[in-house]
Automatic annotation (TrEMBL), chain A:
Organism whose genome encodes this protein: Loktanella fryxellensis
Domain ABC transporter, residue spans: 14-237
Keyword ATP-binding: yes
Protein known as: Amino acid ABC transporter ATP-binding protein, PAAT family
Domain of life the protein comes from: Bacteria
Pfam families the UniProt entry points to: ABC_tran (PF00005)
Entry's Gene Ontology molecular function annotations: ATP binding; ATP hydrolysis activity
UniProt keyword terms in alphabetical order: ATP-binding, Nucleotide-binding, Transport
TrEMBL record, chain B:
Keywords carried by this UniProt record: Membrane, Transmembrane, Transmembrane helix
Location(s), subcellular: Cell membrane
Organism in which the protein naturally occurs: Loktanella fryxellensis
Gene3D superfamilies (alphabetical): MetI-like
Membrane topology: Multi-pass membrane protein
InterPro entries: ABC_perm_TupB-like (IPR049783), MetI-like (IPR000515), MetI-like_sf (IPR035906)
PANTHER family the record matches: PERMEASE COMPONENT OF TUNGSTATE ABC TRANSPORTER (PTHR43632)
GO aspect biological process, one term: transmembrane transport
GO cellular component terms listed in the entry, alphabetical order: plasma membrane
Protein name: Tungstate transport system permease protein
Domain ABC transmembrane type-1: 23-219
Superkingdom of origin organism: Bacteria
Parts of the chain that traverse the membrane: 31-51, 58-82, 94-115, 198-222
Length: 243, 231
């Protein structure tokens, strides 16, 4: 799990096979079967409490299904070639550069390679001027950019993002969306949740729609937005128009 | 009776060699004990915060309780261990500075362990999902949490230093207050007061308090500075 995924073993598609998650006697995700294919931008949509975050955590391997299975194509239980950006990412009490170097050290990357990778990452996302700043002292938008850069530096094949812009103002949201789009353009698979319907329209190639812990639609984005099959998804999109 | 304060200042001003020897030994013993307690207590406290095993709760309570361990009892325990007929009597350590270091380490260790546990437990709550996501298991998280908790941990280390430099019971029992060999500031104060020679006692008292004050001022300053620059 500390081996960098350089020779590209195919970890995708990721398949959830009738995966459920229950806690405290409550079924929070129920019978979710989904295949996440390589190179796509999948947006998970649904109302608050529908289980979006839980589904991401389940895919990422932070929790395990209480029933059903999670299957990576390379057969591993939890592949290293993935990264996740949390809704409120935790940055370490160190400099920005040290934050980006940290997971690389965990991957066992040698110090000189690490320095190069950190420099490359900072440059890639225009964060070089912030390299020596204390990460915790940055604004919310800057912190989210650092978190996204840190995830990218781990050279994931699939990047999970949980409401990456929910706490940000429009200009910071714009920057993050551009970062996500440019990361996706490199061929990295994106799986993200959002309650921002405009953002979903801008970023989604595929949409998975959750309703009360069940996956009730999973389709390419264009037809989904043009005409959802389910009344729940229709109502959700209609909310967009009202607001 | 002479004015003890006048004597005290005269002694301090003259740089009395006996006084300097006593201060030097006190600092050496206490700082060594603090260093050893940190080497053991920081990883142990973090491990206690992260590990889940039966009896963990009891261990946590025990270390909390031991923070109030009376120094004389710590001294007695080390005395029994090191006395001629004790299990480690053959080492001939009783009434040496080494014995005093051992006793003071015993006093400081619970403070370092308990505070480290509490600091790392809070940090772990905040960090654990993120660290797991980044690829760090519990074991690898220990140095990460200690480093990220360094500012708060400093307080615990200073509390340990404060306790050890102020206590008299433990060093008196295992050190024996031998002039020029195991006499520290606190044991000297005890002795000189009992003999009615208040000059040296007051001088040492003033120095001890000045040291504590300086140390805490420095610690506070470092803490403020670190909050700005290290978090």
């Amino acid at each position: 799990m500390t081996v960098p995924p350089s020779p590209t073993p195919a970890i995708l598609p990721l398949t959830l096979d009738a995966a459920s998650y229950a806690a405290g006697g409550q079924v929070l995700l129920s019978d979710v079967s989904v295949t996440i294919t390589s190179g796509r931008r999948l947006v998970i949509m649904g109302a608050n409490g529908a289980g979006k975050t839980l589904l991401l955590r389940l895919c990422h391997g932070l929790i395990d299904p209480t029933a059903g299975r999670r299957i990576w194509a390379d057969g591993s239980a939890r592949t290293a070639a993935q990264a996740m950006v949390f809704q409120r990412p935790v940055l370490l009490r160190r400099t920005v550069a040290a934050n980006i170097a940290y997971p690389l050290a965990l991957q066992g990357m040698a110090a000189d390679q690490r320095r190069d990778m950190v420099a490359r990452t900072l440059h890639r996302f225009g964060l070089t001027p912030l390299a020596d700043r204390r990460a915790r002292r940055l604004s919310g938008g800057e912190q989210q950019r650092v978190a996204l850069a840190r995830a990218w530096a781990m050279t994931p094949h699939v990047l999970f993002l949980d409401e990456p812009t929910s706490a940000l103002d429009p200009s910071a949201t714009r920057i993050i969306e551009d970062m996500i789009a440019s990361i996706a353009a490199e061929g990295i698979t994106i799986v993200m949740t959002t309650h921002d319907l405009g953002q979903a329209r801008r970023l989604a190639e595929d949409v998975a729609f959750l309703h009360r812990g069940r996956l009730i639609e999973h389709r390419p984005a264009a037809p989904f937005f043009a005409g959802p099959h389910t009344p729940e998804a229709r109502a959700h999109l209609a909310g967009d128009l009202i607001w | 009776m002479e004015d003890p304060f006048a004597t005290a200042f005269a002694l301090m001003a003259s740089g009395d060699p006996e006084l300097r020897q006593i201060i030097g030994l006190s600092l050496r013993v206490t700082l060594t004990a603090v260093a050893i307690a940190c080497m053991i207590g920081l990883p142990l406290g973090a491990a206690l915060a992260l590990a889940r095993f039966p009896g963990r709760g009891a261990l946590v309570v025990l270390f909390n309780a031991l923070m109030g361990l009376p120094p004389v009892v710590a001294g007695l325990m080390v005395y029994l261990l090191l006395s001629r007929s004790g299990p480690m009597g053959g080492l001939g350590l009783l009434f040496t500075p080494t014995a005093m270091v051992v006793a003071q380490t015993l006093l400081i260790l619970p403070i370092v362990v308990s505070l480290t546990r509490s600091v790392t437990e809070d940090l772990w709550l905040e960090y654990h999902e993120q660290l797991r996501s980044l690829g760090a298991g519990r074991l690898r998280a220990v140095p990460t949490l200690l480093w990220d908790g360094r500012v708060s941990l400093l307080t615990g280390v200073l509390a340990g230093f404060g306790r050890a430099s102020a206590e008299v019971g433990a060093v008196l029992i295992v050190g024996g207050n031998i002039a020029g060999h195991t006499r520290t500031m606190t044991t000297a104060i005890t002795l000189e007061t009992a003999r009615g020679q208040l000059g040296l006692a007051v001088a040492l008292g003033i120095i001890l308090m000045a040291m504590t004050l300086t140390l805490n001022a420095v610690a506070w300053g470092v803490g403020q500075w670190a909050k700005e620059r290290l978090e």
